[in-house]
């Protein structure tokens, strides 16, 4: 499995004498090549790609192995967030939590989805840190979005992931 937008490699080996020449047949994802027994590159589009590898040393029958290369999309790894408390004169505790993502081509840029908001007093930075002084108790559900900032494809697109999260402020 490769991750869309991330550099990945997979080395193919064969045994026998004389050493085999390795060939690839199939449709590799954009941004990935097969050379000298190594499948490598930065795939630009998530999907499933059937590939057949052929090892031939000129003696006897060639060895054929089919498999599927999966290119996974970018994802948000943060499943839950810690609870917090209302900031006051007697409780001077600030809130801070860092969101995590994988895939794509970092650095990432985080934002709130349109129409959603954090608990009053908290903010989300572009680097994925939720922080601040919570001013109201309650359970708040919101949606975050993350995009990678360096994927260069034609047409120009970015890898993107979206997740619904919740913070409880007591």
How would you portray this structure in words?
There is one protein chain. The protein is mostly beta strands. Helices cover 0% and strands 48% of the residues. It is built from no helices and 15 strands. It has a 4-stranded mixed beta sheet, with no helix packed on it. Strands 2-5-4 form a 3-stranded antiparallel beta sheet, with no helix packed on it. It has a 3-stranded antiparallel beta sheet with strand order 9-13-12, with no helix packed on it. The two termini are 42 Å apart. The mean pLDDT is 90.
Quick take:
The protein is mostly beta strands and 170 residues long.
Give me the strand/helix succession. EEEEEEEEEEEEEEE
- In terms of DSSP E residues, the strand content is over 45%
Low-confidence stretches: none
Q: Calculate Rg over CA atoms.
A: 23 Å
Number of extended strands: 15
Assign the structural class, choosing from mainly alpha, mainly beta, alpha/beta, alpha+beta, or little secondary structure. Answer: mainly beta
Ends: how far apart?
42 Å
Largest pleated sheet: 4 strands, mixed
Number of helices: 0
Strand order of the largest sheet: 1-7-6-3
Any idea what the shape is?
rod-shaped
Q: How much is the average pLDDT?
A: 90
Residues in helices, as a percent range: under 10%
How would the blueprint of this fold be written?
Layout: E1 2-3, E2 8-11, E3 21-26, E4 32-35, E5 38-41, E6 47-56, E7 63-72, E8 75-76, E9 95-98, E10 101-102, E11 108-112, E12 122-124, E13 129-132, E14 138-148, E15 160-169
């Amino acid at each position: 499995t490769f991750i869309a937008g991330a550099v990945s490699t997979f080395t193919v080996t064969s045994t026998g004498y004389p050493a085999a020449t390795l060939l690839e047949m199939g449709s590799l994802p954009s941004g990935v090549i097969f050379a000298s027994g190594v499948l490598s590159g930065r795939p630009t589009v998530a999907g499933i790609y059937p590939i057949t590898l052929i090892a031939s040393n000129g003696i006897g029958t060639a060895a054929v192995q089919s498999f599927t290369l999966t290119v996974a999309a970018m994802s948000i790894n943060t499943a839950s967030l810690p609870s917090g408390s209302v900031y006051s004169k007697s409780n001077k505790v600030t809130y801070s939590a860092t969101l995590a993502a994988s895939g794509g081509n970092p650095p990432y840029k985080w934002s709130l989805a349109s129409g959603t908001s954090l608990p009053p007093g908290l903010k989300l930075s572009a680097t994925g840190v939720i922080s601040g002084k919570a001013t109201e108790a309650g359970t708040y559900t919101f949606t975050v979005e993350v995009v990678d900032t360096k994927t260069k494809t034609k047409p120009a697109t970015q890898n993107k992931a979206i997740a619904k999260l919740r913070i409880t402020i007591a």
